[in-house]
Amino acid sequence: MADEDSRAAGASPGGRRPGGSRRARMIAMVAGLAVVGAGIWFAVAGGGGSPASSPSSSPSSPAVNPLTGEGAGGHVLAVKIDNVGQAQRIQSGLNSADLVYAIQVEGGLSRYLVVFDSGHAPARVGPVRSARQTDIPLLAPFGRVGFAYSGAISGLLPDLAAANLQTITPIANNNLFSNGGSDPTYIQPAQVFSAFPGLAQTKDVGLRFGAEPAGGTAQSSVRVRMPSASFAFTASGAKWLVAVDGQAVVTTDAGQANADNVIVQHVHVVPGKYTDHNAGHADNEVFSETTGQGSADFYRDGKVWHGQWSKPNDTAPTSYTVAGTSMNLAPGRTWIVLTGS
């Protein structure tokens, strides 16, 4: 098993959005949910808005989904999914995703930001957890998509309200969350797409799909480490089977989590704008810089290629290249692990 080294990523300090809009300052934290899970407290609060506020988007889906390179596209919903402790055994929907981002959070732990399109969404997704600062610039290239999460630290709420996102939370949209929005809570994407018919369509965010490029090196498995989490991907035919913290990720709806491609994107993980004190001690909500440039490793078809990623500004697509040429991914689902340098 190859062990990913942390490589320096020349990312710029961009990717942070200033908060403090008038509308955002009016948002109040209406409720809180204290959850003891790996010693972290998650607030249930957030912006949102009604379905009537969703703007119109393109009336037709792309002929080929630019997020997967296969099938038709559709409206886009991103969901923040818990990935700590018991939550790893009750996850649903990962094998229907277009994209899965694995992101470092406070305490060196990890969370998923999972992207679905309306044509291939599963019946249920979760357990849903709270948003982070990293999510905002990461989702900026997708347009005004739906973003479902269970809450956020109070300082982040103005940033979320100012972002070009249709936020979907238990406070604003309680009927869309199971268990009253309390942990563990799940959503049904069909209900979300019905309630918000104007969510942005799938669009080009920089991924390229096609025939396997020359120059790959055989690779049967790879492990990626965060300070308090680890990911392993093992080749199985044309797929990569996913394990987290030494255990296979077995979803409740579709067996072991798997991917057609894995991208290990080396980024700077820096102190975030906000620090959570709700667990009785300071936990800075770290920020992964995805605007800038750095090294990346691409896994498909039992092989690896080493290259680069580049994103000049928050809303631009991310370019993934090997020796200056776009890296072709295999059509299908891609996991992108943002690992610190």
Write up this protein:
- The structure is a single chain.
- The chain is mainly β and about 350 residues long.
- It has a single domain (about 1-55, about 65-340), classed as YerB-like fold (3-Layer(bba) Sandwich), CATH 3.50.90.10.
- It has four helices and 27 strands.
- It has helices spanning about 20-25, 135-140, 155-160, 190-195; strands at about 1-5, 35, 40, 75-80, 100-105, 110-115, 145-150, 165-170, 210, 215-220, 220-225, 230-235, 240-245, 245-250, 250, 255, 260, 260-270, 275, 285, 285-290, 290-300, 305-310, 320, 325, 330, 335-340.
- Strands 4, 5, 6, 7, 8, 10, 18, 21, 22, 23, 24, 25 and 27 form a 13-stranded mixed sheet that branches. Strands 1, 11, 12, 13, 14 and 17 form a six-stranded mixed sheet that branches. The protein has a two-stranded antiparallel ribbon with strand order 2-3.
- Strand 13 (about 240-245) and strand 14 form a beta hairpin.
- The longest helix has 7 residues, at about 190-195.
- The chain is globular, with a radius of gyration of 18 Å.
- The two termini are about 20 Å apart.
- Residues about 5-60 have low confidence and may be disordered.
